[in-house]
Amino acid sequence: MEPNKLNVKVNIKVTEQGAFKHRILIQNVSKSQLKVEGDRYILSLNVGSSRQKLEIVLSISKQVIDKKSSMKRDITYIKFNGDKFDLIIERIYSIKQIRKQRNSYSICYKSTQFQLKANVVNWLTAEYYESTFLPKIENVKMQKSVKRKNNRVLSKHRMVEQSPEQLRKLDFYNSDLYAYNYSPNSDGNRTSREKFGGSGSNMSRRGRIR
Fold first, then answer.
1. Is the pLDDT of residue 149 over 80?
2. Strand order in 116-125's β-sheet?
3. Which residues lie within the region annotated Disordered (predicted)?
4. Chain-centre distance of CA 51, in angstroms?
């Protein structure tokens, strides 16, 4: 996509965590291609191909452009090279946030950071999204499901491999993780020969049950 001699590239990748890594690269931007609005420069692009359409509005502080200050703010990075500069926008985007409208899927987000503001809408055709990305999404889901199942099986095997003594110690350990409202000996109904557990510090000095 090359509007007004700008080189615009969009890269979308399904991550191992099951999200989208959405990256936009706009190269060789010059000051003359920007619109002035008050104390800001505006770059508005509406470009597309047979598979997708990108609508983007970038609002940049005049101070950043005039001083040619390369910087990164939130999801937007501006890098100067002489009188021209590149803009990079990168965002991890949840698949659950993708919306289908008619025959398209949309990726929409924005950044309101003062120096570099960005508003992005990327439309993907249904055919492109469903043939390219849905299989990858399903594959990630399947891998995560298999991993969870393997972890459960491994945990079960570890329990089986433990000796009775190890399991007994684990049982005592787990029992001490929670507070009790009543002592196990709180009923106090014992024969004269049966002893209370503990140090006996909770017993009255006035006498005892016989």
1. no
2. 35-37, 40-48, 52-61, 116-125, 104-111, 99-101
3. 184-210
4. 27
